[in-house]
Amino acid sequence: MKNIKMLFLLLVIGLGFQKSYAQPIRFKTSSVSFTDKKNDGTWNEWSDFVAANVLITLDAKKDLITINSSEIQSFKIKAYGEIEDTEETNIVPFECVDNKFSKCKIFIITKKKENNRMQIYVNYNEVKFVYNIYNDK
What we know:
Layout: H1 2-14, E1 25-36, E2 50-51, E3 55-59, E4 64-67, E5 73-80, E6 84-85, E7 89-98, E8 103-111, E9 117-123, E10 127-135
Antiparallel strand pairs: 1-2, 1-3, 1-10, 3-4, 4-5, 5-7, 6-7, 7-8, 8-9, 9-10
């Protein structure tokens, strides 16, 4: 677990965030979209993106992801998943529990072929959110 945390932090530094281990990583959002599950178990289409100026903080030292929207959402990181790095994307997965004790998975995705566009996905069993993000330097 400790090795995975260190690998993640080295990856973040390697992507140009230039943060030290003790400092949280901050992202700002530009927009958000969502989808929910239909009664038959399939997913609806993603909604249109709407503007969203929200601060998202990843604090590996505290194992915490916070989304400072109008209702603050806190996610306790229970497990760090295996990082997937391909020619097209870099995916950093987290298994989390939110402040209402609901399980979810969070993914930070960098789309390399789209000028390193970054997104954070918050996936629950019945609903998914995606934020377009950029590094808050």
